[in-house]
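hiii, so i know i said id send this last week but things got crazy w the move. better late than never?? heres the sequnce for the chain we talked about at the cafe, plus the structure i predicted for it. fair warning i was half asleep when i ran it
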Amino acid sequence: MIEFLELLREEIRGRVPALREVGIAFEYPPNLSMGDLSIAAAFELAKQQKRKPREIATEIAGQMQGLAFVRRVDVAGGGYINLFLDRPAFLKRMLDPRSTEVGAGPGDGKVIVEHTNINPNKAAHVGHLRNAVLGDTLVRLLRFQGQEVEAQNYIDDTGVQVADVVCAFMHVKKMSREQVAAIPDPFDYYCWDLYAEFSTRVTQDKELEGRREETLHRIEQGGNETAELAQEVATRIVKAHLATMERIGVRYDLLAWEGDIIRRRFWATCFELLKEKGAVHLALEGKNAGCWVMDLPDLPEAEKVIVRSSGVVTYVGKDIAYQMWKFGLLGMDFFYKVWARYPDGSVVWTTTADTSDEHPGFGGASSVYNVIDVRQAYLQKVVYKGLEALGYREQSGRSVHFSYEMVALTPGCARDLGYELSPEDEKRPFVEVSGRKGLGVKADDLLTALERKAYDEVAQRNPQYDDTMLHEMARSVASGALRYFMLRFGRAKVLAFDLKEALNFDGETGPYLQYAAVRARNIFAKLKERDGTTAETVRGIAADAASYAYLDEADDIWDLVLSAARMDETVAQALSSLELSHVAKYSYTLAQKFNGFYHKHPILHEADPAKKQLRILAAHYLSGTIQTALNLLGIELPERM
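okay and structure toks below
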């Protein structure tokens, strides 16, 4: 629709001199009787010309007569110019495979989206699923617009969370690297419990607290047994995390390891630049004495520690170096090797600090999105202020913190997952969880619970299918349910996850969208079986003028066509506002409209050839649009449902 509107806008400018100096903004009237598009420019011109808006609108409407793809132009109210489109011509254009109405064309340089970013010290939890789904969907929407996008997953393998688990193995469990390596899978679950145990013990044991600081320093230093154990732990857990994310269709182009930022001396180079520019200074007194700090007078914490007095660099310091590399500002690069190949043959790469495989180019972005929860807002501001202090104001402005709120559970969901709730918890709208306390919901546990419930539902609906088919359907439905639920709410809202609500086949859910898409596909399977209808047949119907004979009187079908045509506008709106729920809501509305069409306008038994052909075209257009919507949301289209 975006390209269509731009072509229409250009034609109007050519015909109407008065509109060349003002923007032509198209609006959508509340009902079809008022037109398909509306222009309110006469009101702005009236202020400039000291005339009545309706008088100006009438003049403009006269100059617009005969526009391509426009059947008539009316003036309504005080000066609205309403356009009624040529319905057959418009639908024919949208059905033309040569039409470029998908996406918005190549963007301005590469975009990097960093998301997921789970500390490699324990299993992924439900909050990480929201991050991954938001990040992956952002990648899909940007690619739909024609952008070159690089999806990165930052691995904080030298941070305090990994140090906690390594310290627990070495000084609580007294285990060697070989013993740790022998722990059977799920290793990430074992570390989940160990991390919770250590988090409790370290608050009660000063000696253990000192051991943790020593462990952290040795991991960052590298080249020792502690660092080797940390690498063993992080590598195994990252493999588990990627397997979890594959269950919901989340994939990456590059795993960027924090340890490689240190080993490749990215941080050392960045630190020297920060000192040269006076962006950091050594604190000589006060609570931060002995630390290298950054002055941030316009932020709540006016002095941020970048390097501790122990010499250990903070998370935010390494993140400044990483952000510089993303924009190609360091003059340095990682080495790379293949980490793994996905089932479809696509590759996920990983950074290394030593030798490199032949690889595509990474980094060097024109803009960067960091998908990180809202609690990290201050630290993200510090990173961007760091870029500004180094003189990179433009890149700082092209750094976007894509924030989101936490994930909780409804009391009912918590009970379904086996949690005992207090009377107070039962009364609350949602139950908060905490990975540090071991009270979080593991992502794999949630997905498995969803798959079990989905299996029961699809087995009841499809008793004719064997167990293998039912399990595959359940996996697809569970993944779709999870992804849609994570996207349907605004990112600034706390998301209270509910198993039953997510899997409702009749509500605003992923399964509802999947069911509509499968139903649409089945129409054409039955048409092929009965009438021999193929894709070539549909192309022939689209070229036949008789197929559009009833479109001018079929307002409900026309409404479907207009709604489907607005996919690219909806994506653009979602990206400009960074509110991906717009695409989810749009997709649900499309599915609702298609289901209404399906019941009101049967295709298989329609006797009138022209009506049948129009319905086939509408179903074909809607089916393709819904499948595109599912792909943008990362929701699979099941074989059956």
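btw The longest strand covers residues 148-155. thought thatd interest u
miss u guys!!
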